[in-house]
Design brief:
By secondary structure, this protein is an alpha/beta fold. The protein has helices spanning 2-15, 44-52, 63-68, 72-77, 90-101, 126-134, 146-149, 172-177, 180-191, 195-202, 268-283, 378-389, 393-400; strands spanning 18-21, 33-37, 57-62, 81-83, 105-108, 137-144, 163-170, 232-235, 238-241, 247-250, 256-260, 290-298, 312-322, 325-332, 335-342, 350-351, 357-361, 364-370. A seven-stranded mixed β-sheet has the order 1-7-6-2-5-3-4, with helices on both faces. Strands 15-14-13-12-18-17-16 form a seven-stranded antiparallel β-sheet, with helices on one face. Strand 16 (350-351) and strand 17 (357-361) form a beta hairpin. It is globular.
Length: 411
């Protein structure tokens, strides 16, 4: 862990990450502590863990990330605790409590996954339930500019400001006096971020090897002017609709500079949330359906020491998403192999920058790998999440807490 912290220190100095604290980290050094971090960037753990400064921190990480990187043994030695995303995971909770009982530290990302559009993702209210029972110090870490430096839709790392703030939100004594609802509200308020709103005021430049528009058609699929889908294409620093000619340029501040059209969104995050609002209306109709041809796969768990790029194929055929759930009808070795996943058990079909969709169902991890490469799949993600919300009142409420959209003139 000492070597790991040393390496992360070098990376943070290269990136020029700035840290600030509203408490003395040394004052809680040997006390049970839970670090709750925002997840705006895929590099958030490098910023978060290093700035936190404790070598006894056990990070909680998505099960698939531990296995897919091919460094399973190293991560386990570093104390990483695996977690089935969105699912009840009693073994994970048991391991987390063990850490706190020995006065150690836990690192959690309450959002579960990296932000798709640069603002806060929903936080499961069960997080507050765990925090209430942790009897630990609760430190909240929030980033500014992290998404803009390492966005969700491109692997290009931009040069620009990244600020990390640490705040001691609760002590064990404070937790005894607060309800779970009060804890949830305080965490959500403290951890909330919106990098586009932040930079409208801060005006930091973010410059990389590729334009800031590169790859954005992976998360934006609908033209705000003509409302047509899958007509957007990226040309250098500009997003253009092939149908109506609508165009916006994304500059070094991530501003959307209107070129042509009358429906330019305020920023990328608002554009993305408008798409969600449109999808939410669509999935309410029983005729809604998304279909793709491909393979349903799982990870090969017998090759943890190697990168498991060779996935285990479960079925080859057709994936179908309706407001009743997800189904996959196909064949394997000449035999029919079909799967059905209920809408309530699938929280999301998370899109990967590699082109596939991934999801958990009842503590099993699956991937859908489309036959057609390079096609935008973000609508599947939005639709799966909104379909799940039709059946899960608590999660629907958590989503409502962060997906405020407001008035949009281009709708």
């Amino acid at each position: 862990m000492t070597i790991c912290m040393w390496i992360m220190g070098i990376i943070n100095r290269i990136y020029g990450v700035e840290f600030e604290y509203d408490y003395d980290p040394k004052a809680i050094k040997d006390q049970p502590t839970v670090l709750l971090s925002s997840h705006a960037s895929r590099l958030e753990f490098i910023y978060t863990l290093y700035g936190f400064g404790r070598k006894d921190t056990n990070m909680v990480c998505g099960y698939q990330n531990i296995l897919k990187k091919g460094i399973y043994s190293l991560l386990i030695k570093l104390g990483v605790i695996s977690k089935y995303l969105y699912q009840p995971d009693f073994m994970c909770v048991k391991n987390m409590l063990k850490v706190l009982r020995r006065n150690g530290a836990l690192g959690l990302f309450p959002e579960g996954i990296q932000s798709t559009s640069g603002s806060t993702h929903p936080i499961n209210p069960a997080t507050a339930q765990f925090i209430k029972r942790s009897r630990a110090n609760i430190v909240v870490c929030t980033s500014k500019g992290a998404y803009l430096a390492t966005n969700r839709y491109s692997s290009d790392r931009k040069k620009g400001y990244v600020g990390i703030s640490y705040s001691l939100l609760f002590t064990p004594e404070m937790l005894e006096e607060l309800t779970e609802e009060q804890i949830y509200d305080a965490i959500l308020q403290k951890i909330s971020y919106n990098d586009f709103a932040f930079n409208k005021v801060a005006r930091h430049k973010y410059i990389g090897k590729k334009p800031n528009a590169f790859g954005i058609d992976k998360i934006l699929y609908k033209c705000p002017d003509c409302k047509k889908e899958y007509t957007l294409q990226v040309e250098n620093d500009t997003v253009v609709c092939k149908s109506c000619g609508f165009g916006v340029r994304i500059n070094e501040y991530y501003d959307l500079v209107d070129i042509k059209g009358k429906g330019c969104p305020a920023d990328i995050d608002e554009w993305y949330k408008w798409q969600r609002k449109c999808v939410a209306k669509e999935v309410a109709d029983d005729s809604f359906e998304l279909v793709l041809q491909g393979s349903l796969c799982a990870l090969k768990l017998d090759k943890l020491r190697k990168s498991p790029n060779d996935k285990k194929t479960l079925s080859v055929g057709t994936a179908r998403l309706t407001n009743k759930g997800l189904s996959f009808s196909g064949v394997l070795d000449g035999d029919a192999v079909n799967f059905d996943f209920s809408a309530k058990s699938v929280y999301s079909l998370t899109f990967s920058t590699q082109g596939y969709l991934e999801f958990y169902c009842n503590n099993d991890y699956f991937m859908i790998i489309p036959d057609e490469e390079g096609h935008c799949r973000i609508k599947w993600t939005l639709a799966a999440e909104e379909i799940h919300n039709l059946y899960d009142e608590k999660w629907r409420s958590a989503c409502a807490d962060v997906y405020g959209i407001g008035e949009m003139s281009y709708e």
